[in-house]
Amino acid sequence: MADRHPHSARNETSLERADRNFAELLQELRVVQTGVQILFAFLLTLAFTQRFPSLDTVQRATYVTTLLLAVLAAALFVAPAALHRSLFQQNAKATIVRVSSALASAGLCVLTLAFTGSVLLVVDVTLGRGAGIAAAAGTLAVCGTLWGVLPRLVRRSLRAKGAPVG
Fold first, then answer.
1. Which of 94, 106, 110, 113 is at 20 to 30 A from 146, Cα to Cα?
2. 10 Å Cβ neighbour count for 153?
3. pLDDT value at position 10?
4. Which residues contact 27 (CB under 8 A, 6 or more apart)?
5. Strand, helix or coil at 57?
6. Alpha-carbon gap, residue 113 to 131, rounded angstroms
7. Residues facing 117 on adjacent strands
8. Phi, psi of 66 (to 5 degrees)
9. For the whole model, what pTM was predicted?
10. Which residues pair with 4 in a beta bridge?
11. What is the pLDDT of residues 76-130, one digit of tens each?
12. First and final CA of the chain: distance in angstroms?
């Protein structure tokens, strides 16, 4: 069986691996999608609160930008399902997995910005601009570290130990 990878601990074909990777990706997206939906719902309701008209220009710009970032994040996280549906039974699973992984990674970057904007807006309104900027910077740092830096450090550590990555 030329399609089997002798060095793979799972001893699976490339198609089996693509199926498994896509299933794992969909599970990850289910977790993230809930957070995006909650954030988006929260942002949608803000415009209809009594306090919204009192927001200054910077706060309104932050609100609109953050709302649009949440929409973009949601679109990026739903795109793998749409891609799969449009390429269903076209022998494109490996490509679907590769593109979907890139979409999910982009979605996490955009979600980081949406979280940062949300924190900026809420803390700015409740405690002031300086506190909002500090809280937003902290949010950006935490998300960037946990979602970007940490996985790279773990991957580097695994490679240094000779462990299979991926």
1. 94
2. 11
3. 76
4. none
5. helix
6. 17
7. none
8. -65, -40
9. 0.84
10. 13
11. 999 999 999 998 888 888 899 999 999 999 999 999 999 999 999 999 999 999 9
12. 22
